[in-house]
UniProtKB/TrEMBL annotation:
UniProtKB keywords: Metal-binding, Zinc, Zinc-finger
Occurrences of domain C2H2-type (ranges): 146-174
The protein, known as: C2H2-type domain-containing protein
PROSITE patterns: ZINC_FINGER_C2H2_1 (PS00028), ZINC_FINGER_C2H2_2 (PS50157)
CDD domains, sorted: PIN_LabA-like
Amino acid sequence: FRFWIRVGYVNSRILFEASVVSVNSRIPTMFSRFVQRIRSPKTQITSLSSIKGFSFSFSSINPKPQIRTGLFWDLDNKPPASFPPYDAAVKLRTAASSFGFVKLMVAYANRHAFSYVPVVVREQRTARKVLNELENTGLVKPPEPYFCGVCDRRFYTNVNLINHFKQIHETEHQKRMRQIESSKGHQRVRLVAKYSMKIEKYKRAARKILTPKEGYGLADELKRAGFWVKMVSDKPEAADIALKEHMVNVMDKREVECVVLVSDDFGYADVLREAKERCLRTVVIGDLNEGALKRVADVSYSWKEVVMGKAKKEVEKVVGKWKDRDVLKTLEWTYDPALEKERGGSCGVWDYDFDYDDDEIENGTEVEPVEIGDGGDWWKIDNEDCVGSSRPCR
């Protein structure tokens, strides 16, 4: 028994000493690694641009502010007759964006402007009706079948496609809209999110298949392009008055620095003059080459030039002229009595004290005034011998 106790004690002693030796042998290596970590020089980042794959610039954080531009469209005077409404609106927005950031796009018109159908659209609708009749009788076959924009079904006549769209997809769309209108609160939000894709798909297909019940979809197309469309009453010049008030309100609030007007009506000349007095930049888009608006505005373009992109090509030259004008206005001097009085109290009053001899005043002698002849300028002094004089000697 004592023997086995002795053996166990010896074994445990050996194991303990072996573990201590292993730990003591590891301490120098661990300590050396710790010292290396402390003494190792940390990589100092001198600039953020030195980091790989990272580009940084203060201009990206604080970019140069662009000129805010407001686009005002008089649809009563200048409707998009020669171009589709959406394409014309996109062209106008592109032309206005060349002068700065387009913050506001407004269009005003009465009910007649939205119900009017241009001659080109009438001719297209008449040709479409004739072609539908020929397809129904079998005299004409379309080169490619007509596809439904919602369910992708194919039809060999345009009339069958229209009937299919009205009977199925238009009815489904009306059910969805009634369901959204009848709901409230959180349920309405969920239904709008649920049917948003289907509603957008239906509207995109309906533009190509269904004919608008009134007009040719002017208001919807302009809204799709980003315009804020406002319908006014049918009174004469109601749209002009409303658009002028809107322009003046925007100028009072200093929301824009550049005004782009789409009209040929010379009644807007007073508003453009007021905009120039407020140091705003003015651009007019119209077809009248010698109109009163183009004479008042800084820059003028026609519809053809806008479609061709001329405004975007000449923007550097126009902006350069505007910058030169702003610099000249800062250098221009105007007399302000109140400001001059604040700068120097007695600068405007000349009080000169002349030193006279007291003996001359007591004796009654007076100082004779110096007479300046008419032979030359007063600031040029004559010599004694009349050499280099600008006037004859007297």
